[in-house]
Amino acid sequence: MKHKVWIKPDDIVFEVDSLQTLLSAAQEQGVSLPYRCKLGACMTCLCKKIEGEVEYRLEPMLTQQEQQQGWILPCQAYAKSHLVLMLEE
Fold it and tell me: Quick one: DSSP state of residue 82?
């Protein structure tokens, strides 16, 4: 299943298949997101989820509080719905 992802504040939109991470889908479609390790350890890709739902195949390197505040790691996150994300500048 495919979902749309909107990146704010730049209003970038791309699609992600439920079998790929947000980062890999963005890269395939020429959308530049910050990243370094692709393992979730460096936290370079950290961004805020404004709307939608994600899941992880492995436990993310985020505290429960960070997850409740909406922080996600696109290099490890899979979309379960359409998403609106905020990249910190």
Answer: -
Token pair 């947000």: residue: 22
pLDDT in tens, 23-78: 999 999 999 999 999 999 999 999 999 999 999 999 999 999 999 999 999 999 99
Q: Is the peptide bond before 34 cis (omega within 30 degrees of 0)?
A: no
Question: Is residue 25 a contact partner of residue 17, using CB atoms and an 8 Å limit?
Answer: yes
Q: Residue 47's domain spans which residues?
A: 2-86
C-alpha–C-alpha distance, residues 73 and 78, integer Å: 10
Instruction: Report how far Cα 49 is from the mean position of its chain's Cα atoms.
Output: 8
Q: What is the CATH number of the domain that holds 24?
A: 3.10.20.30
Domain total in the chain: 1
